[in-house]
Design goal:
With about 425 residues, the protein is mainly α. Helices cover about 75% and strands about 0% of the residues.
Length: about 425
């Protein structure tokens, strides 16, 4: 980094590192403390950059700090607005009963537990690339909870299956996982290149699912569920959502503009059509349709968490710590071992800061290695319930039926799927 000081052995570096580790300890303990994960990391980001600014004050290079923090903030802004649009679309589809009608259909068809295990898993795998792994997991978990109310064992194993499937499905699409989106937005890979991960992702899901299959009952649950219909305009919103994805890809591939501008253009489609829904349903529906309610229900805790993580990791990178990590992992160990370790690390820490650290290091890697790190960061989190947003969300939603230790029992089986998918990618794409 031009004109930057190496603060790795300076009091400022040690203080920044201590603040980051402490804040991340709070993030990992969220399940027990109930302190939302965004709060400690947003504070950590501010303190880290304040310490850096103090260390640089009085030196000829003080202006470089402002330049670097603006660079990190721009990276965050692109990611945040991209996700804001995606989350708003998901909330609009939810409000129009699109997901509830799917849930109603699945329950009404009286499938057996084993059939539901596979249906929710396969749907999670194929919905995840479009609707993102977190939303997909939450929708499928709602189905499992409705059906398996009288079978806690089924709910636990079905939730593990959903987490693995949603993370695997999200790995081969920039719209399926935050880490995949980060790699695409950083310009490391083209949109179509991610599709090379489809077969490794299928392997990652099928191996643990095939083993878990034998532990799922073949009995039919007895439940009654009323039919839920999609509200006016819901089906059109699905088309507009797909059109928004096409717009983002087109802006990036053909106009060479950042994908976020395509997404924001797609948000305008939703805004204008929402106005049409509001006019058409006035007096027909009990509650007046309001586009901005969908914006308000966006996961702000998640968006602010990304702010904290990206700014904090950016600060540690500016201090010089990531250079040491990069040298050890990508030069001493080699990229294949390093990228496989990234997946294991993402299960323990969370894949967002791990992937952002890799992108900040910018190791010189081939496209197949960038695909490998995209795969491992995407599916590695499945090994522990705290390793992915989908797992953390389902622990909260399932009210104690899907737990950390319940997931841990299946970790060796999920790990077999993880290493098999890495091996499959190496065979096919290297």
């Amino acid at each position: 980094m031009e004109h930057s000081l190496n603060l790795t052995m300076h009091w400022a570096g040690f203080a920044a590192l201590a603040i980051f580790v402490t804040s991340y300890a709070f993030v990992m303990a969220e399940e027990f403390t109930h302190l939302r994960k965004s709060k400690p990391v947003v504070l950590a980001a501010g303190l880290i950059w304040a310490i850096i600014a103090i260390a640089y004050s009085g030196t000829p290079h003080y202006e470089v700090v402002e330049h670097e923090i603006r660079h990190s903030f721009l990276e965050y802004a692109e990611l945040a607005f991209f996700l804001l649009v995606a989350m708003t679309y998901i909330n609009a589809l939810e409000e129009r009963n699109v997901f509830n009608s799917l849930k109603s259909w699945l329950i009404k068809n009286q499938f057996s537990y084993r059939q539901l295990f596979w249906i929710t898993g396969i749907l999670s795998f194929f919905l995840s690339p479009l609707a993102d792994n977190l939303t997909t997991a939450l929708v499928m978990c709602a189905v499992v909870l409705s059906v398996g109310a009288s079978s806690p064992k089924f709910v636990g194993i079905a939730c593990i299956n959903i987490v693995v499937a949603a993370n695997a499905g999200g790995a081969f699409s920039p719209f399926g996982d935050i880490t995949t989106l980060m790699v695409w937005q950083a310009g490391q890979l083209e949109f179509t290149q991610f599709f090379a991960l489809v077969i490794p992702s299928i392997v990652n899901y099928l191996i643990p699912a095939s083993i878990m299959h034998f532990f799922v009952s073949d009995h039919k649950p007895e439940i009654a569920e009323k039919t839920i219909h999609i509200k006016y305009g819901g089906k059109t919103l699905i088309v507009l959502g797909l059109l928004t994805i096409a717009t983002a890809v087109s802006f990036h591939n053909f106009l060479h503009l950042p994908p976020v501008f395509g997404m924001m253009t797609g948000l305008a489609y939703l805004q204008l059509y929402s106005f049409y829904i509001k006019i058409k349903t006035r007096g027909v529906e009990e509650k007046t349709y309001d586009f901005f309610e969908n914006v308000a229900r966006v996961e702000w805790d998640t968006l602010l968490f990304f702010f904290g993580v990206i700014l904090a990791v950016g600060g540690l990178g500016f201090i010089g710590y990531l250079e040491y990590v990069s040298k050890f992992m990508y030069t001493d160990l080699g990229p294949t071992v390093a990228n496989t370790l990234v997946g294991i690390l993402s299960a323990i820490v969370d894949n967002i800061p791990v992937m952002f650290a890799v992108l900040t290091m910018e190791p010189a890697m081939s496209d197949s290695q960038w695909l490998l790190v995209t795969l491992t960061a995407g599916v590695g989190g499945s090994m522990l319930s705290i390793g992915s947003a989908a797992g953390v969300a389902l622990m909260g939603q399932s009210k104690g039926l899907y737990t950390f230790f319940g997931h841990l029992k299946w970790t060796p089986i999920i790990a077999i799927g993880y290493f098999a998918s890495v091996y499959c990618h190496i065979l096919l794409n290297f």
